[in-house]
Write a structure and sequence with these properties.
Length: about 375
């Protein structure tokens, strides 16, 4: 089977809610990374077969196929198409999968995969709720078919995070210690310049250059302990959840022929890609079975993986996943995760991949495994091999 190579990856800094990127139009935000990716790779943009961007809540500035719009906003060739996809939190990771599958099928040679989300401008779940303003039906869980299958069970990421903490016997203190480590790791990574090479600084309206992730906090276990839980008597607080934020990110995926013809030097190859579903009411447990499936398909073991990126939607999600898979914390989210760096939904998949590639190169690791929980009880897994 033909190989799919990751030529390069780039991202914006992550802007906190209401922060540096809040006023940037989503199409311009995505266009920034598309431009940076083309410049970094030196590829003729006209040779790109497709642009696949992940994005959720595709209304307002994110509506109208933002992948196509962003490419045009960037001033890139008209004949290159674009498509926007939604696999919830895994949208841009799925974009990489679709891009790699296009290359591996032999029907495409150069595909841009990425994602964008301005959560400051368009709140999470806005697309689910906007129809109510016009008298349209309420969200998916009100569907008669859904109710027939799942009755009136509450479908909520917050409830799922609580259920996971209870089932896997994860205490609030466990989660707060994990969250603190995420912030500490992220601040260390920033201080040491580990993200500098993967970030394309954004010139803001006032002429200043935005080049550093805004979300990591100076916090402590004492501060976290003083927060009220999201549900009465619960364990989940804002301190152990991912942050609302704004960002874009992109990866160039190439075939062996494109690598040869364009004189490219790939950074990694796609060793494995898969996606699995799990109980949608539990919602956030998907990475557990998805990781087991990926390892079984590849013949790899946890000890063969040098670095893991498991998205920190909530601390309980990653802690349960580590318990079930045996992935050691010292190889998981080593530069911090969504709790510290934010989770710009549609952009997170390729944001994680950008960081994973850079860290594999920094540490000399061979294999990196990326996974994340997604709405509907889904989870993508990508295994990349550094070259």
């Amino acid at each position: 089977m033909p190989e799919a190579y990751l030529v390069d990856a780039v991202r914006t800094p992550v802007g906190k809610r209401g922060g540096a990127l809040a006023g940037v139009h989503s199409a311009d935000l995505a266009a920034h990374t598309l431009t940076a990716l083309m410049e970094r790779t030196g590829v003729d943009p006209g040779a790109v077969d497709d642009v696949i961007l992940g994005c959720c809540d595709t209304i307002g500035s994110q509506a109208g196929d933002v992948a196509r719009t962003a490419w045009l906003v960037a001033g890139l060739p008209d004949h290159v198409p674009g498509v926007t996809i939604d696999r919830q939190c895994g949208s841009s990771q799925q974009a990489v999968h679709f891009a790699a599958q296009g290359v591996m099928s032999g029907t495409q040679d150069l595909v841009v995969a990425g994602g964008v989300q301005n959560m400051s401008a368009i709140p999470i779940s806005a697309a689910m709720l906007v129809g109510q303003q016009y008298g349209f039906s309420t969200p998916f869980a009100e569907s008669p078919g859904w109710r027939a299958r799942y009755a009136d069970q509450e479908v909520s990421q917050f409830r799922s995070a609580e259920m996971i903490a209870e089932r896997w016997e994860i205490t609030r203190e466990d989660m707060e210690a994990f969250a603190l480590a995420s912030h500490d790791r992220a601040r260390t990574a920033i201080a040491e310049g580990r993200f500098a090479g993967e970030i394309a600084p954004v010139t803001l309206a006032d002429g200043s250059s935005f080049d550093t992730d805004q979300c990591p906090r100076e916090t402590s276990l004492e501060k976290m302990a003083g927060l009220q839980p999201l549900a009465e008597g619960g364990r989940i607080t804002a301190a152990v959840a991912s942050q609302i934020c704004d960002a874009s990110s992109a990866v160039l995926v190439a075939s062996e022929r494109a690598v040869r013809e364009h004189g490219l030097t790939p950074r990694a190859r796609v060793h494995h890609l898969s996606v699995r579903g799990d109980d949608p009411v539990w919602m956030l447990t998907g990475p557990i079975e998805a990781t087991r499936h990926a390892l079984a398909r590849t013949g790899l073991a946890i000890d063969d993986i040098d670095l893991f990126e498991c998205n920190e939607a909530f601390a309980s999600v990653v802690l349960a996943w580590m318990k079930e898979t045996g992935a050691p914390h010292d190889r998981v989210n080593v530069n911090g995760g969504g709790i510290a760096l934010g989770h710009p939904i549609g952009a997170t998949g390729t944001r994680l991949m950008t960081t994973l590639l850079a860290e594999l190169e920094r540490t000399g690791g061979r294999y990196g495994l990326q996974t994340m929980c997604e709405g509907g009880g889904q989870a993508n897994v990508t295994v990349v091999e550094r070259l």
